[in-house]
Amino acid sequence: MNRVYEIDEGRAFVKLRGTMLGVTVVNLLIVVVIAAMLVLSGPVAESVGNLIGLGSAFLTVWNIAKWPVMLALIIVAIAVLYYATPNVKQPKFRWMSMGSAIALVVFLLASLAFGFYVAYSNSYNKTYGAIGGVIVALLWLWILNMSLLFGAEFDAETERGRQLQAGIKAEETIQLPPRGTKKSEKLQKQTEEDIKHGRELREKYSSEDNHDRSGDSQDDQPAGNGQGGSARYESHRDRVREKVQHRAGNGESDDGDRPRGSA
Q1: Which residue has the higher pLDDT, 105 or 232?
Q2: In the prediction, which pLDDT does 21 show?
Q3: Rounded to whole angstroms, what are the CA distances from 126 to 129, 131, 169?
Q4: Which of 131, 149, 172, 174 is the most exposed place for a label (fewest CB within 10 A)?
Q5: Which of these, 159, 188, 164, lies nearest to 176 by C-alpha position?
Q6: Are 96 and 215 in the same domain?
Q7: Domain tally for the chain?
């Protein structure tokens, strides 16, 4: 659900687990009630009615009225899921939304089609044997999950459309306040610390590398440090060059004597 609403999970561990536990308990109770209502039908309902002294008229009403009651319970379960599971504060609690209605219709149609497929196909029993029923149940739960996500996506995009029409910048993310930010802030702080530590390591080793390079370049230069040593070297070189040129112009050799055969 958080991906549907484009938000990170920021609720603390206790708050998140408490919310998920409450949602699970509510939906489990609804599933148990619906299962009991499905069991109490036909001959079973007639036997229970005769046992507690209820007439046939009540049983007829029960067999008709239980289907709307079951539908209402399913709607309540979907409403609780859509309201409590994402880390966003919904504008209000809605018993029935367009997304939940679409999810319910898609789930019923998909379940009906899947039921026909399983009834007229023996491939699961032939392929998986005793665990064929488990595979069928898991596939049915996957259909239920996809239907609920499709309905939640529809509600989220509907909310985005409302915000865009109201002039809210929701083209990138849906602008709904989060239920909690403690966990996301902690993760953000840890990420910033890791980035800071990595930057310090990079700058440390970069400065050491530059220092080593500067030391190597100074070793290649003549005696003296920096620009002063280089200037003294060039001055000495110029004096030697002038002295050699002067001796060559006077016809002297390198040891200061005139060449042989001169007057």
Answers
A1: 105
A2: 93
A3: 6, 10, 55
A4: 172
A5: 159
A6: no
A7: 3
